[in-house]
C-alpha cells in the first residue's frame, strides 16, 4: 500500500510541475493546423498518464530555452538526465540542416508519460509525426549520422519491426520509424512498441471516451491533453486513504485542457473529465443532476487541509440510480446489513423515515493536528421530526462534554447510537458511522469522536470559515457558482505539497522550488453528455513569487512547523540559534545561517514553550519542555540528560511553566494534569515539598503564569470555564477577587506595577471587558464592552518608553489605548485572521506589533505610528523572532509551510 501511495505521489508531483511548465509553452504561440497521414494518437496507449500534444514541436525547444526553472525542472521531473542537453543539441543541429528544420517546424509532436513496469518511476514515449513533404528524407540515416552521432547504436528485431537502441555511458533510449512517424521511448517494451494490430486495439485513437473529448475540444485547442486515474489526488495523494464517502473521484480520468489562462495568482484549466470502468456508474448518477449552488463553505473551517463537497438537485433520482454504483464498490451487502440492523434496533422501516437530507454534503479534513475528519450534511426542517420520532428518539441523546473537553463555548452535542444512520440517510453515499453531531443552521456537522467536533464548531462559531477567505472569493470569481462536485486542497495545511524530494532507484525528483509556490488546488465537476463531466481546475500561486522578497535563507523541514521557532543561545559562542518542532514530531536545532545542526524524533507533539535551563549550574544550557505524558530535558547535542524523559503521574492538560523565583537556577516546573491537580517538580525530577494546592474545580488548559510584584510572588491560573485563581509559592490563595472575573479563552494576564498607583494584574475578560485585579482583590473595568468575543490582547510599553499601553487586535484592526483609556490610534490590518499577537523590541529600542496569521499565511509588522512597515506583509505562519544586525537591518525569522525562513529587512 505504501508503495502504491509513493507511485501516486510521483505522478502527482510530475503532473503539477508539467502543468505549470506547459502554460509558458502555450501562452506565447499561435496554433497551427496541418494534415498528416496518421492519427497522432495511434501509437499512444490508452493507459497514458500524461499527454502533451503540440502541432508545433519547435515549442518544445523554445520552452527548454527559457532561463530559470522551466527546463531544469522538466528534466528532473521526467527523470531524463540529459534531456536538456539533448534539446539544446537538437536546436543547434537544426540550424545546420535547413531542410529538416523546415520539416520540424511543420511537424506534430505527441509526448506521453507512463509508470514503469517495475514501479520505480515514470517512463515516456514521444512520437514525432512528420508532414507529407518529408517522404523523401532518409530518416534513419539522418538520425544515425546527425542527431545521435555521439551514441552507440544497436539494431533490435522486435516483433515485425526494427528498433534502434541508442546508448551512451549516461543514458539509453529506443527509436523506431513507422511511415512518417519517429517514436522515441525510454524502454523497449513501451506501449508504443509491438505489433501494429495490437497497438491499434489499445491506442487512444480507439478510445471512444478520448475521441469524445477531442470532439468536444473542437476549435478551442488541440495542444494539451492531461490524463490521470487519480484526478482528485493531484494535490493530496493521501486524501482518500480514509475517505468515508462512496464518491468515484479517484477513478476520474481523461482530463482535456482546452483553455489555458494565467494571471499573477492562478493557473486555470478547463475541459472534460471521463470516468474509468468503476467510475462510470457514479458519473452516470451525476449526469441526471443539475449543477447547484450552496452556502456549505460557510460551515467549512478556514483551517481545513482538504475538502470535497457534493450538491444534488434531485435526491430521489440519485437514490434510484446509486444502487449500481454501490454494487460496483461492493457496498450493496453492507447497505442491506445496515437496513436490517436499523429495523431490528429501532423497529422502524428505514424507507418510512422522512427525507431530511437535502443533497448538500461536505467531507472536511482538518489541518494536520486533527486526526479525524468532519462530515457536513445539509438537512431541512424535517430533521426535528427525527428527534421526535417515538422509536428513534431513544437512540439520539444529548451528550455532556466531559471535563477534558470543557470549553467556554459549549455547543449542543448529540450522540446517535444507530449503526449505519448516515449511510442510510444518504442512500449509501456515506460509508462510515459518525457518533456525535450538532445542528448549525441547516447543516448537521458530525464526527466520530467529540473532541474534534467541539474544536471544529468553535472555529465556525468565531467566523473562521472557508467562505470568508480571500482565496475562496477569487475561486468563486474564476470558477462556476453551480457545480456538483468540488475538491479543495490547501498546500500548507495538508502538508502534501510541501514534501519536495522523492528518490527511487532510477529517478530523483527535487522540485521544492516549484511546489512551494502554490497555496491551493481546486477542482469542480458538473454534468456533461453521457458519463462525462465538465471540469474546471484552479492552481493558486503565492503572490510573493511574482515580486521580489527579502528572503535571506530558508531551511526545509520534513513537515510544517508545529511548535516554535524559539530563539536559544549557543552557550559555546553566544550566538543565537533556533529550536522548533514540526508536525511529524521532529525537533530541530538550526543555527543563524539556516543549517540544521541536529534533528530528533519525539514521542508526540510539544505542549509547552521550549525553555533553556542550566541543570548543572555550569553555564551549559539544556532545552526543557513537555509532551502530554513526558517531561523532556535535552542537551545542546540533541541527547537526553540522564533520567529523562520523565513520565508524568497523570497526563498534562497544558504546557509546563518554569519559574526561577530568586534567579538562582533553582527551577520550579509546574503543570496541570487530567486529574485536575497541579504538580510542582524540580529539575532533579523530585516533587517540591511544601506545595499545598489540592485540586481545581475544572480542568486547566493554559500554562500557569508567574508575576513578581512588590517583592511577592503571584502564580496566576485560569481554568477552562474562565475562572481565575492567584496563588503564592506554596499553592495557597494569595488574592481572592471581590467580584467575578472570567478570562477569555487562551487569554494571558499581565502584571502591572505603576510608579503612582496600586499594583495588580491586567486581565482580558469576556464580553470585551479588560479588567484590573489589584493585590487586595479589588476589581476595576478598564475598558467598556466595545470588543468582539474573540479579540487578541497584549499589555506592553509600545507608544512610549516607560508606561504601558493596552494593545488589541479585533475585527481586522490594531487599536492602542493608554492606561488612561485614551485611544492612541486604530489602524486596519486584515479581516478574517486568527493571529498570534506579539510586542517586539528591536534596534534602538524600537517597538513593533507583530501579527502572525497561520490561516492566511502572512506576518505583519506595525510601528508605533500605526503603519505596517515595508515590505510587510510577508509569507509566514508562525510567531516571529527579530534580531538587529550591526548595519541596523532587521533579521526576521518565521516558519512558512515546511520551511524555516529568515528575511533581511532594510532599516
Written description of the protein model:
- By secondary structure, the chain is of the alpha+beta class.
- Helices cover 19% and strands 34% of the residues.
- The strands form 10 sheets. The protein has a 20-stranded antiparallel β-sheet, sandwiched between helices. A 4-stranded antiparallel β-sheet has the order 23-53-52-51, with no helix packed on it.
- A hairpin with a 5-residue loop joins β26 and β27.
- α1 runs antiparallel to α3, α2 packs across α4 and α9 packs antiparallel against α10.
- About 9% of the residues have low confidence.
Shape assignment: globular
Beta fraction of the residues?
A: 25-35%
Q: How many helix segments? A: 17
Overall mean pLDDT score? 77
Number of separate strands = 53
**Helical amount:** 10-25%
Q: What does the largest sheet look like?
A: 20 strands, antiparallel
Radius of gyration: 32 Å
Concise account of the structure shown:
The protein has about 900 residues and is an alpha+beta fold. It has a 20-stranded antiparallel β-sheet, with helices on both faces.
Task: Name its key features.
20-stranded antiparallel β-sheet, alpha+beta, four-stranded antiparallel β-sheet, 907 residues, 17 helices
Helix and strand layout, with pairings?
Blueprint (H helix, E strand, L loop, with lengths): L1 H26 L22 E5 L3 H8 L3 H10 L4 H14 L1 H8 L2 E8 L6 E8 L9 H9 L4 E7 L2 E7 L4 E7 L2 E5 L10 H6 L6 H10 L6 E3 L25 E11 L3 E10 L4 H8 L16 E8 L3 H14 L3 H15 L10 E10 L7 E6 L3 H6 L7 E4 L13 E4 L4 H5 L10 E5 L2 E5 L2 H12 L8 H9 L6 E6 H4 L6 E3 L4 E3 L1 H4 L2 E10 L4 E10 L9 E6 L4 E9 L6 E7 L3 E5 L5 E6 L9 E3 L8 E5 L3 E6 L10 E2 L9 E3 L8 E5 L5 E4 L23 E5 L2 E7 L5 E4 L5 E3 L14 E3 L7 E5 L5 E5 L4 E5 L8 E5 L8 E6 L2 E6 L4 E6 L6 E8 L3 E8 L4 E5 L11 E2 L5 E4 L5 E7 L2 E7 L2
Antiparallel strand pairs: 1-2, 1-8, 2-3, 3-7, 4-5, 5-6, 6-7, 8-9, 9-10, 10-22, 11-12, 11-18, 12-13, 13-17, 14-15, 15-16, 16-17, 18-21, 19-20, 21-22, 23-53, 24-25, 25-26, 26-27, 28-29, 29-30, 30-31, 32-33, 33-34, 35-36, 36-37, 37-38, 39-40, 40-41, 41-42, 43-44, 44-45, 45-46, 47-48, 48-49, ...
Helix pairs in contact: 1-2, 1-3, 2-4, 9-10
Amino acid at each position: 500500500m505504501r508503495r502504491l501511495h509513493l507511485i501516486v505521489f510521483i505522478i502527482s508531483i510530475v503532473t503539477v510541475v508539467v502543468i505549470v511548465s506547459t502554460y509558458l509553452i502555450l501562452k506565447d504561440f499561435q496554433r497551427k493546423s496541418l494534415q498528416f497521414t496518421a492519427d497522432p494518437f495511434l501509437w499512444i496507449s490508452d493507459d497514458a498518464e500524461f499527454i502533451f500534444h503540440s502541432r508545433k514541436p519547435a515549442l518544445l525547444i523554445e520552452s527548454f530555452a527559457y532561463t530559470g526553472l522551466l527546463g531544469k525542472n522538466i528534466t528532473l521531473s521526467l527523470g531524463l538526465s540529459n534531456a536538456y542537453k539533448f534539446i539544446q543539441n537538437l536546436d543547434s543541429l537544426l540550424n545546420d540542416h535547413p531542410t529538416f528544420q523546415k520539416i520540424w517546424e511543420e511537424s506534430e509532436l505527441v509526448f506521453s508519460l507512463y509508470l514503469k513496469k517495475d514501479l520505480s518511476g515514470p517512463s515516456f514515449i514521444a512520437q514525432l509525426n512528420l508532414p507529407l513533404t518529408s517522404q523523401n528524407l532518409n530518416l534513419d540515416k539522418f538520425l544515425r549520422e546527425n542527431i545521435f552521432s555521439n551514441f552507440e547504436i544497436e539494431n533490435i528485431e522486435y516483433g515485425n519491426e526494427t528498433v534502434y537502441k541508442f546508448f551512451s555511458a549516461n543514458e539509453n533510449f529506443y527509436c523506431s520509424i513507422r511511415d512518417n512517424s519517429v517514436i522515441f521511448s525510454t524502454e523497449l517494451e513501451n506501449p508504443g512498441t509491438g505489433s501494429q494490430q495490437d497497438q491499434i486495439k489499445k491506442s487512444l485513437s480507439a478510445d471512444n471516451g478520448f475521441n469524445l473529448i477531442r470532439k468536444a475540444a473542437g476549435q478551442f485547442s488541440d495542444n494539451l491533453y492531461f490524463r490521470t486515474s487519480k484526478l482528485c489526488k493531484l494535490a493530496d495523494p493521501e486524501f482518500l486513504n480514509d475517505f468515508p464517502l462512496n464518491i468515484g473521484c479517484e477513478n476520474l480520468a481523461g482530463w482535456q485542457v482546452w483553455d489555458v489562462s494565467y494571471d499573477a495568482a492562478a493557473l486555470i484549466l478547463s475541459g472534460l473529465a471521463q470516468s474509468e470502468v468503476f467510475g462510470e456508474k457514479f458519473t452516470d448518477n451525476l449526469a441526471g443532476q443539475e449543477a447547484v449552488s450552496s452556502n456549505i463553505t460557510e460551515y467549512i473551517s478556514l483551517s481545513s487541509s482538504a475538502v470535497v463537497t457534493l450538491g444534488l438537485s434531485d435526491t430521489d433520482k440519485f437514490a434510484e440510480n446509486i444502487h449500481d454504483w454501490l454494487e460496483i464498490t461492493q457496498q450493496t451487502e453492507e447497505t442491506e446489513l445496515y437496513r436490517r440492523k436499523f429495523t431490528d434496533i429501532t423497529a422502524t422501516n428505514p424507507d418510512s423515515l422522512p427525507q431530511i437530507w437535502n443533497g448538500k454534503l461536505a467531507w472536511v479534513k482538518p489541518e494536520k493536528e486533527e486526526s479525524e475528519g468532519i462530515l457536513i450534511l445539509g438537512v431541512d426542517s424535517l430533521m426535528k421530526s427525527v428527534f421526535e420520532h417515538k422509536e428513534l428518539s431513544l437512540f439520539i441523546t444529548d451528550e455532556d462534554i466531559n471535563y477534558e473537553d470543557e470549553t467556554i463555548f459549549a455547543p449542543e452535542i448529540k450522540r446517535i447510537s444507530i449503526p449505519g444512520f448516515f449511510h442510510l440517510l444518504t442512500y449509501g453515499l456515506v460509508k462510515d458511522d459518525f457518533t456525535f453531531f450538532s445542528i448549525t443552521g441547516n447543516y448537521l456537522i458530525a464526527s466520530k469522536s467529540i473532541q474534534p467536533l467541539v474544536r471544529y464548531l468553535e472555529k465556525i462559531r468565531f467566523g473562521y470559515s472557508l467562505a470568508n477567505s480571500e482565496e475562496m472569493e477569487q475561486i468563486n470569481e474564476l470558477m462556476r457558482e453551480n457545480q456538483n462536485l468540488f475538491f479543495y486542497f490547501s498546500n500548507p495545511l495538508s502538508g502534501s505539497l510541501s514534501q519536495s524530494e522523492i528518490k527511487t532507484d532510477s529517478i530523483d525528483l527535487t522540485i521544492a522550488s516549484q511546489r512551494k509556490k502554490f497555496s491551493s488546488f481546486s477542482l469542480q465537476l458538473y454534468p456533461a453528455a453521457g458519463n462525462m463531466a465538465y471540469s474546471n481546475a484552479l492552481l493558486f500561486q503565492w503572490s510573493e513569487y511574482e515580486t521580489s522578497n527579502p528572503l535571506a535563507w530558508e531551511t526545509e523541514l520534513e513537515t510544517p512547523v508545529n511548535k516554535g521557532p524559539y530563539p536559544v543561545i549557543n552557550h559555546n559562542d553566544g550566538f543565537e540559534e533556533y529550536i522548533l518542532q514540526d508536525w511529524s514530531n521532529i525537533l530541530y536545532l538550526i543555527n543563524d545561517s539556516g543549517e540544521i545542526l541536529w534533528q530528533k524524533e519525539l514521542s508526540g507533539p510539544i505542549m509547552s514553550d521550549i525553555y533553556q535551563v542550566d541543570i548543572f549550574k555550569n553555564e551549559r544550557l539544556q532545552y526543557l519542555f513537555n509532551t502530554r505524558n513526558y517531561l523532556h530535558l535535552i542537551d545542546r547535542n540533541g541527547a537526553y540528560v540522564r533520567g529523562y524523559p520523565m513520565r508524568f503521574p497523570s497526563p498534562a492538560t497544558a504546557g509546563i511553566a518554569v519559574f526561577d523565583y530568586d534567579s538562582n537556577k533553582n527551577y520550579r516546573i509546574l503543570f496541570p494534569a487530567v486529574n485536575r491537580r497541579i504538580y510542582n517538580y524540580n529539575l532533579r525530577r523530585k516533587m517540591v515539598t511544601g506545595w499545598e494546592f489540592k485540586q481545581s474545580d475544572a480542568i486547566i488548559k493554559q500554562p500557569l503564569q508567574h508575576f513578581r510584584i512588590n517583592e511577592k510572588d503571584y502564580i496566576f491560573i485560569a481554568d477552562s470555564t474562565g475562572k481565575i485563581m492567584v496563588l503564592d509559592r506554596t499553592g495557597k490563595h494569595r488574592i481572592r477577587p471581590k467580584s467575578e472575573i472570567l478570562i477569555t479563552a487562551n487569554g494571558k494576564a499581565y502584571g502591572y506595577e505603576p510608579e503612582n498607583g496600586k499594583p495588580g494584574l491586567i486581565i482580558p475578560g469576556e464580553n470585551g471587558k479588560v479588567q484590573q485585579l489589584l493585590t487586595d482583590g479589588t476589581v476595576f473595568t478598564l475598558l467598556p464592552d466595545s470588543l468582539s468575543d474573540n479579540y487578541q490582547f497584549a499589555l506592553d510599553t509600545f507608544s512610549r518608553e516607560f508606561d504601558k499601553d493596552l494593545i488589541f487586535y479585533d475585527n481586522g484592526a490594531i487599536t492602542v489605548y493608554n492606561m488612561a483609556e485614551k485611544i492612541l490610534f486604530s489602524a486596519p490590518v486584515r479581516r478574517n485572521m486568527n493571529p498570534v499577537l506579539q510586542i517586539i523590541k528591536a534596534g534602538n529600542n524600537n517597538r513593533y506589533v507583530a501579527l502572525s496569521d497561520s490561516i492566511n499565511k502572512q506576518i505583519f509588522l506595525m510601528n508605533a505610528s500605526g503603519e505596517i512597515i515595508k515590505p510587510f506583509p510577508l509569507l509566514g505562519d508562525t510567531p516571529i523572532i527579530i534580531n538587529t544586525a550591526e548595519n541596523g537591518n532587521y533579521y526576521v525569522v518565521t516558519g512558512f509551510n515546511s520551511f524555516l525562513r529568515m528575511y533581511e529587512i532594510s532599516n
